[in-house]
Amino acid sequence: MRRSTALLLAILALTSFRASAQQSLTDEEKKRLFLKAREEMTTIPWTPPTNAETPKPKPKPQPAREEPTVKPFTPKPQDEPRVPPVVRQPPTPRPQPIVELPPQETIGSVVKNGIGRGDDEPQPKQESRGLFSRIFGGGSSYKYVTGSVKRAISGASVRSGRWRYIVVHNSGTRQGSAKAFEHYHRFVRRMSNGMAYHFVIGNGTSTGNGQIEVGNRWSRQIQGGHVHSDYLNNISIGICLVGDFNSQKPTEPQKAALTELIKEVRSRVGRVNGQKAVVAPHRNINPPRWPTDCPGDEFPYQWLRQF
């Protein structure tokens, strides 16, 4: 390779010298001389260098790799078919009485708290009392327990020892009456016996201020639907005062009418184990599972304790 390069340089130098010496040569002569010079060139074949001339670099030693440990595959045994255990059927539980949830305060609602159920329980047998005592029993100095109310209270066939509690409620509404509650409970709440209370005392909006209305449940002597307990509904008389006593107090005529009504009802139902019917606000007698503020934060509880 080196020899051919030197020869090529010599030829080019000679050619250049001849060209400068013979500037008068024609182009044809220059071409002829170039071709002749090219034919005189000797090509030396290239041979690759031997190992001795260009030693190959030694490769760097590589760190030994650890072979990954491969666990031998062991097929899992197939699960044996399980025999289903013998399941004994539990005894059929006795049906529990249904308790309705208290309705929410909505437009058109006439009851805020204390709507129970228990309409479908069998009613206890009633015993009738003498005609004279039913019509003319009790005092005659009442203002709000009118003659018609007194006759309705006395005319019911009250079973001795049946009623143990008198529960006081508020309607949770600014107005209302026994007729309005009857429609709401029977057709909206779907209570088969209608109005949940036994008595209603008006506040001067839909009925007179302190006016007492006797409900169907008292006349028929059936349990109420005003407490969230079927047991308590069966032994408790419900009296509802119209009004929302979270924002206002009951009127004085309502308090006077409640006083007279409690006295008359207590006189009519008699005593149980020598004790008069216990008067209680709804929130004090309702089961703990169903807390309520009825008859409201503004109700005079201290006044009610006199009974």
Characterise this structure.
The chain is α/β, with parallel strands linked by helices and 307 residues long. It has a domain at 132-304: Lysozyme-like (3-Layer(aba) Sandwich). It is 31% helix and 9% strand. The chain has ten helices and five strands. Strands 3-2-4-1-5 form a five-stranded mixed β-sheet. A hairpin with a 5-residue loop joins strand 2 (199-203) and strand 3 (209-214). The termini are far apart. Mean pLDDT is 77; it is low at 93-139.
Question: Which labels suit this protein?
Answer:
307 residues, alpha/beta, Lysozyme-like, five-stranded mixed β-sheet, 10 helices, 5 strands, 9% strand, rod-shaped
Q: Whole-number average pLDDT?
A: 77
Q: How many H/I helical runs?
A: 10
Give the proportion of residues in helices.
25-40%
Number of strands: 5
User: Which segments are poorly predicted (pLDDT under 50) over 5 or more consecutive residues?
Assistant: 93-139
Strand order of the largest sheet: 3-2-4-1-5
The CATH architecture term of one domain is 3-Layer(aba) Sandwich
SSE string, helix = H, strand = E? HHHHEHEEHHEHEHH
Shape: rod-shaped
CATH topology of one domain: the name is Lysozyme-like
Structural class estimated from helices and strands: alpha/beta
